[in-house]
Amino acid sequence: MMKNVFVLAEHRQQKLRDTTWEAISAGRQMADDLGAELTCLVLGSNVDPMAEEIAKVCPKVLAVDDARLENFNSDVFISAIQPMLADKGPYVLIMGNSNSIIDLAAALSVSLDAALATDCFALEVQDGKPMAWRQVYSYKVNTLVAFKDAERIVLTLRTGSFRVAESAGEAGTIEKPDSPLGDEPARKRFIEFVEAEKGDVDIASADVIVSIGRGIGDEDDLDMFETLADAVGGVLACSRPIVDKNVLPKYHQVGTSGVEVKPKVYLALGISGAFQHMGGIKGSPLIVAVNKDPKAPIFRLAQYGIVGNLFDIVPALEEAITKGK
Fold it and tell me: Which of 56, 73, 76, 274 has the lowest tally of Cβ within 10 angstroms?
């Protein structure tokens, strides 16, 4: 029986990332189902503000303050985490599936002699044992992963697949153990943080997205779709074929090969629903699809679907929304 569920907090430039809150939420549910204790590990430099923020949603926080942990380095993090968990008994360790964690999770599972499942989009407990849902064959097949009798399990979570943790009421406790890092030099070192170039919109943070796909045909005039996006208070995005045609820049592309999004409303226009695209919108609670093909895969994911010509439907939809306002 698992005694502990741990969550590894992820931060960048002294700010906690969304993956932390999603992992805490998933960890809290798994801990409840297992009857285990939930603890969040936050490793960094000047960690007090982050630890206090995490304690609002997590019953216990272990905060390690060490200048060598200020910036992410998988070698250094492994050296810190391994001794922290050495005597904790059977446990599940949960973290996000960001680019940084991809570098960490596999090596950490070897170091901890733990089972590993990456890019999980759902977790559950059966007969007192943790289970994980993940996709294989390029997101075409959902699989439920069991871990036999493993006493240590490492899980990484797909961004946007879990709700963000909310306040648990009473603040959790914060413990500040001494840094477990020794004097041995790391095999690699952090050089600098380079901010990615940002476009004119950030679709990852949008509450409403109007997304266009191959179904717009050779139409390069986006006025109709931009007008609809303005009417619903959203931003314009697209699937990969639109970027390939140079109609919109790459930072507008939604999907696992573009930007994974989780808006409150996602309106898919002329998007058939390739698995890469659908993998990037699974976190959206409301998906509305318009497509002339009634067998388009997007309809399997959408809560509402309209079969028809989008050049007839979009103007009517924009007019109805404008009148409603």
Answer: 56
CA gap 321, 231 in Å, rounded? 7
The residue with tokens 């590993």 is 116
Closest Cα partner for 256 from 99, 123, 100, 105?
99
pTM above 0.85, yes or no: no
* Category of 119 on φ-ψ map: left (φ > 0), alpha (ψ -120 to 50) or beta: left
Task: Name the nearest CA neighbour of 268 among 258, 259, 279, 277.
Answer: 277
The angle at the Cα of 206, spanning 298 to 139, to the nearest 5 degrees, equals 35
| CATH of region 203-324 | 3.40.50.1220
Cross-sheet strand order for the sheet of 129-136: 122-126, 129-136, 141-145
Assign a CATH topology to domain 4-175: Rossmann fold (3.40.50)
Name the one residue in this structure whose structure tokens are 């619903």.
232
* Kind and range of the H or E run holding 320: helix 310-324
Rounded to 5, what percent of the chain is helix, strand, coil? 30, 25, 40
Neighbouring C-alpha atoms within 13 Å toward the C-beta of 311: 7
What residue spans define the domains of the chain? Answer: 4-175, 203-324
Which residues pair with residue 37 across a beta bridge?
Answer: 4
Cα–Cα distance for residue pair 280/268, rounded to 1 Å: 12
Same fold, 4-175 and 203-324: yes
Which phi and psi (to 5°) does residue 108 adopt?
-65, -40
Backbone angles phi, psi at 18, to 5 degrees: -60, -30
